[in-house]
Structure formats: C-alpha cells, structure tokens
Amino acid sequence: MERELENAKISLVQKADFNIFDAFRIFDIDSRGWVSQTDLRLGLNEIGVYPASEEMDLFVKRYDKNSDGRIKFSEFCDAFSPIDNYYATMLNRR
User: Are 53 and 73 in contact (CB under 8 A)?
Assistant: First the structure.
C-alpha cells in the first residue's frame, strides 16, 4: 500500500501542470493556511472524488502532525511530497 501511495505521488509530480500550492487552494478557499476535514471532503467532491469517512479520518490522522484536526499547508505538502528526493525536489521547485 505504501508503494502504491508513493507511485501516486510521483505520478502527480510528473504532471507538468501540478503544483502543491494550487492543489492546496482547492481546499483552502478562505486562505486560512489550513483545511479541515470538511474542507478536504468538499474540495474532493468538487473534483469528482467521494472518499469514505474512514478514508478521510485516516488521511487527517496520518498527516495532522499536531493533532489539532486541521491540515496546515506544511502538512499538506508532506502528504503529497514523494519520499524520493529527486521527485520531491521537482515538486518543491514549482
């Protein structure tokens, strides 16, 4: 499962039009610098993705480093940055 996740992250990085800031703005429509689980769900629904509640809970639990129920931009970056340094650097340059 971890390998599949890493491959998905690398696939995103390889898309020339993907950048992490614009991706975050899909969810942070009020420019607060963080998103709630509700913001994530609404943003995903807007692009045609309908995750189960368990999937949303798992995402927030995994990437919400300080357990405040919010995903800050830095945490969002961690969620979408590949482990592979080459691809992570490529994403950070955008």
Answer: no
| Cα–Cα dist 84/38, whole Å | 30
Query: Please, which pLDDT band fits residue 2 given cuts at 50, 70 and 90?
Result: confident
Question: What tokens appear for 19 in the block?
Answer: 């950048």
Range of the domain at 53: 2-92
> What sign does the CA torsion over 71, 62, 40, 89 have?
positive
Residue found by looking up tokens 């689980």 in the block: 37
Q: Considering its fold, how many domains does the chain have in total?
A: 1
Distance, CA of 83 to CA of 94 (rounded, Å) = 17
Q: Is the pTM of this model over 0.90?
A: no
CATH number of residue 86's parent domain:
1.10.238.10
What is the C-alpha separation between 15 and 10, in angstroms, rounded? Answer: 9
